Each structure stands twice: as C-alpha cells, then as structure tokens.
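User: hey, got a sec? need Acetyltransferase (GNAT) domain-containing protein folded
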Amino acid sequence: MIKLLRTDANNPDFKELIILLDAGLAITDGEDHTFYSQFNKVDHIKYVIIAYENSKAVACGAIKKYDENTMEVKRMFTSPESRGKGLASMILAELQNWAKEMDYKRCILETGIRQKEAVSLYNKTGFILIPNYGQYEGIENSICFEKTL
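Assistant: Yep! Here you go:
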C-alpha cells in the first residue's frame, strides 16, 4: 500500500532519501556534480512529498517558490527497488496539486540530459521543454521543462 505524506525538508525520511539521490547523481553527473549540487540544497524547502510503501519511505519530491506565479520541482527520487511502480508520477501530481492549492500557475524544473528516466517522466506527465532558465542558461547538460497548472 502506497501512502503519500506532505511534509518539509526537516523530515528525517526525506533526508535519508536525499542522501541516496545525491550518491546516484554523483555517479551520473560525474565531473558536473559539484556544479549541480550547489543548487540542490534543501534547507529552504518547505514543501516535500514522501511516498511510503508498507511504511517504508521509498520516494520523494519537493517544490520551492521560484517567483510569484511559479514553483520549481526539486529533489525527485525513487529508490531503485521501488522504480517502475508509478511513484514518481504520483508524487509529481501531488506536488502540482499542492502548488495549485497555493495559487501558483506553473511548475518549472531542471534535470540533466543524462537523467533519461527523469526526462521520460516529465515528457509523459505533460511537461514541455523550455529554454534553460536562471543558473542553467548555457549549461549544455541541463534540460528544463514547465507545466501550466
């Protein structure tokens, strides 16, 4: 049974999932990891979703304010043993619902071009490719998406 919990970045289960996420990204990103990790701090994230499967935290995602109308999706992760069950799609949908409840109009996000599963997730859930924004402008290994809520 899957349960989604709304929480914040202080949740210890979220912190444990982020350790796993960062370990995986360090491998996938290679030399680029230091650049990307500076934008993945969680100390100011107030909106986190954790998926629990049989009471075990197995996936997470977060949103943070980007501007007055926009939330940025951050820290999406599903543990390897729980992949392929639709958890990331469930979390992404709940994050969008939460953003809508707070009257935000769109969500944006950045992922790496080497994150093939992430790119596939965002494409299949209605996000559209946009020019790289903010700190990702001109970064060839980044790909950015948005979705109107």
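Quick note: The chain is about 30% helix and 35% strand. Let me know if you need anything else on Acetyltransferase (GNAT) domain-containing protein.
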